[in-house]
Amino acid sequence: MQQALFLFLDFLTGMVIAVMVVANTQFGVATTMGVSLIVNHIIGLSILSSLLLLGKKNKTINPIRKPAPWYLYFNGIFGVAILNCNYYTIVYTGASIAMASTVFGQSFFSLLFDLTGFMGMQKRTLNKKKVVSLLISATGILIMACTGDGTFSFWFILLGILAGALTMTQMILNSTFASYKGAIFASRQNFLSGLVAGLLFYFLFTPKATLGGFAKLPEVPILLMVSGGLLAVFVVVSTSYVIVKIPAVYSALLLSSAQILTSLLIDTLFFDSFSKTLLIGALLMLVGMAGNLLADKKAKSS
Fold it and tell me: Mean of the pLDDT values across residues 249-277?
């Protein structure tokens, strides 16, 4: 029952990510992607700092904190790298191939993390049933890559795979940090280090565009300006809590398929666009993950 709750929360997080990506992209179009990242991090940092202050006597919000490895404090830096990897992959390959390569990166590296016990993840083994289930999920990813939309560019596909790998790594590191400091504190530190990295990166490399983007903020609707940061708080806190509770490969497949299905729904409702190929690919990913779940249950009962 508890695992089902974690799986549902992971799927819900994937749906929220899909909405957040649309909001962040629209905000980035209205200003710049750098401004979008910086504003979202300021909002997230403000909300989480307020929660920690108001709930300082609450053991759920402020549990007893243990010393943590120094590098976990800088986990938010990954966010800047992920944003730029995703941006260039989409620009040079198209949305479908970019999505497929990122999903592949998330799934492949999450499997490696499960098999190696990376950062304290529970080590897991493969059997024939699990291999077949994973191949079904991989088929879904390949189908998404073969939509015919976009350009097959090897180096930018590698960049998309890197974005997926960094995304899973960031989630696992943040979840590990949460086991030392609590989910809210770990999430706040994620936003803080991400904000510092974003300010340094965008003001050093694109200062004119960034300042120009900030000048456009008065023209941006308030809802669009704050929605990305609000949703990001939910995503970071929920993944901090869930990732270490279920196999990383399940989390990757659930997050990815939820994002794709929600994106398809958004495209259908608001942009009058629908991709049957992406739907089939996402459903195959879910079927493959269901096969893995059944294999795990049989292994536990035997």
Answer: 75
Q: Is 58 helix (H, G, I), strand (E, B) or coil?
A: coil
Give the three-state DSSP class for 248: helix
Among residues 51, 78, 245, which one has the least CA distance to residue 163?
Answer: 78
User: Which of 289, 294, 302 is CA-nearest to residue 249?
Assistant: 289
Give the tokens for residue 26: 């629209």
- Region of 6 (left: φ > 0; alpha: ψ -120 to 50; beta: rest) is alpha
Asked if residue 225 lies in contact with residue 75, where contact means CB atoms within 8 angstroms, the answer is: no
Distance CA 97, CA 265 (A): 19
**Tokens 């195959």 map to which residue?**
284
The two tokens of residue 255 are 């997050």
Q: Which helix (H) or strand (E) holds 123?
A: none
Distance CA 83, CA 62 (A): 30
3-state per-residue secondary structure call for 179-238: HHHCHHHHHHHHHHHHHHHHHHHHHHHCHHHHHHHHHCHHHCCHHHHHHHHHHHHHHHHH
| Residues 4-26: tens digit of each pLDDT | 788 888 889 888 888 887 788 78
- When computed from its CA atoms, the radius of gyration of the chain, rounded to whole angstroms, is 19
Structure tokens at 191: 């936003």
What is the pLDDT averaged over residues 101-124? Answer: 75
Domain map (residue ranges) of the chain: 2-59+69-301
The single-letter code of the amino acid at 68 is: A
CA distance linking residue 287 with residue 141, whole number of Å: 12
